[in-house]
């Protein structure tokens, strides 16, 4: 009966359709806006990125949202009710996108600062570790050299005893010569062992005196060698690398004909003052 009534009244039927269309436009606007959101999320990959990547994803999302809105406006009948419903929600979505873009940009800035700070810490840590490695290696080498030097220095009296025995020994029989040869072989082996460790004897007889290497305990006048030449070595000196283990005890020459050092300038004045004082004392007496 309702259909018959509507058919009988065409004007009422047209008005009814317009009213239904007007009431349906807000729902159409919401469906269109929801469709825009879904498509923008799919194109912008929203929810799967953060930081700088999120900021980059929001750009195509906003562009897609505006493009789809333009398509909706171009393809559908738009009246005042549709605009009042659709446009505010579209503006709200754009404002939300701007807020998310600002948040993503701020987050990207924080991540960039954190990354730079981490890089700086890594560089400093790497430099500290390299310095620690070099310092540790130097300390180990210094400790190794110190222990080696102390050990070799403790064995130097053996060298002294062999040297002293060689000077004082007087061989009279073939048996004594064989014993001496055996001991000399042992002495050479010990010297080669020390030399392999880096032990070196300081310059001896005939070398210039060096206060850094020699300990002069005697002097002797000599015109046959230059002044300051080592004439005799009482005890050998040794170095281990750059380190002096023991200074050599030596006798040093000096030139007997060298002129004596002139008296100090104030010495004559002092003697003259003393003589004048004695003369004054005699006169007063």
UniProtKB/TrEMBL annotation:
Subunit relationships: Homodimer.
Region named Disordered: 257-285
Keywords from the UniProt entry: Chaperone, Coiled coil, Cytoplasm, Stress response
Gene Ontology terms describing biological process: protein folding
Family from the record: Belongs to the GrpE family.
A GO cellular-component term linked to this record: cytoplasm
UniProt feature coiled coil, ranges: 87-135
InterPro entries found in the cross-reference section: GrpE, GrpE_CC, GrpE_head
Single Gene Ontology MF annotation: adenyl-nucleotide exchange factor activity
Keyword Transcription: no
Name of the protein in its database record: GrpE protein homolog
Domain of life: Eukaryota
Cited HAMAP family: GrpE (MF_01151)
Gene3D superfamilies from the UniProt entry: 3.90.20.20, Head domain of nucleotide exchange factor GrpE
Location of the protein in the cell: Cytoplasm
UniProt-listed PANTHER family: CELL CYCLE AND APOPTOSIS REGULATOR PROTEIN 2, GRPE PROTEIN
């Amino acid at each position: 009966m309702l259909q018959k009534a509507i058919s009988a009244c065409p004007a009422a039927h047209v008005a009814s359709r317009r009213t239904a269309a007007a009431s349906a436009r807000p729902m159409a606007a919401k469906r269109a806006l929801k469709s825009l959101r879904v498509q923008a999320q799919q194109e912008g990959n929203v929810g799967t990125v953060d930081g700088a990547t999120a900021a980059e994803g929001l750009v195509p999302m906003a562009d897609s949202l505006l493009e789809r809105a333009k398509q909706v406006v171009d393809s559908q009948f738009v009246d005042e009710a549709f605009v009042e419903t659709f446009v505010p929600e579209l503006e709200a979505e754009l404002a939300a996108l701007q807020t998310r873009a600002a948040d993503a940009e701020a987050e990207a800035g924080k991540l960039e600062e954190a990354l730079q700070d981490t890089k700086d810490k890594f560089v400093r840590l790497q430099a500290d570790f390299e310095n620690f490695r070099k310092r540790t290696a130097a300390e180990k080498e210094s400790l190794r050299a110190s222990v080696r030097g102390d050990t070799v220095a403790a064995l130097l009296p053996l060298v002294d005893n062999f040297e002293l025995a060689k000077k004082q020994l007087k061989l009279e029989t073939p048996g004594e010569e064989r014993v001496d040869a055996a001991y000399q072989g042992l002495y050479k082996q010990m010297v080669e062992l020390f030399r392999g460790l880096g032990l070196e004897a300081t310059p001896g007889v005939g070398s210039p005196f060096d206060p850094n290497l020699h300990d002069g305990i005697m002097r002797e006048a000599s015109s046959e060698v230059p002044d300051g030449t080592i004439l005799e070595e009482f005890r050998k000196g040794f170095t281990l690398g750059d380190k002096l283990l023991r200074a050599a005890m030596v006798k040093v020459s000096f030139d007997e004909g060298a002129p004596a050092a002139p008296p100090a300038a104030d010495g004559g004045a002092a003697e003259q003052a003393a003589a004048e004082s004695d003369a004054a004392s005699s006169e007063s007496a």
